[in-house]
Amino acid sequence: xxxxxxxxxxxxxxxxxxxxxxxxxxxxxxxxxxxxxxxxxxxxxxxxxxxxxxxxxxxxxxxxxxxxxxxxxxxxxxxxxxxxxxxxxxxxxxxxxxxxxxxxxxxxxxxxx
Length: 113
Prior knowledge:
Elements: H1 15-18, H2 36-39, H3 51-62, H4 72-82, H5 100-107
Helix pairs in contact: 3-5
């Protein structure tokens, strides 16, 4: 855990890189979990999914349904299609709250995730 609060604003020297030269609009959504009591505001806990639930998600991916981030999944599917999927690749995902993107990787042929 980071004992210091994260910055509120994008540093001036990094602003152009973060916004692709101003092409991307910046909106504010700030979460500071540097103090233990701040993390009490979230009830994420530990997520566990049954094999059946994960298989359902993989099938949804194969049918190109949108999941956790909605329309963004369509862009991800297009990108993965463009590179020929993830056949045989070992993939790691860190920080997910539910296994949707793990299911995306498996649905696109990852050998492990």
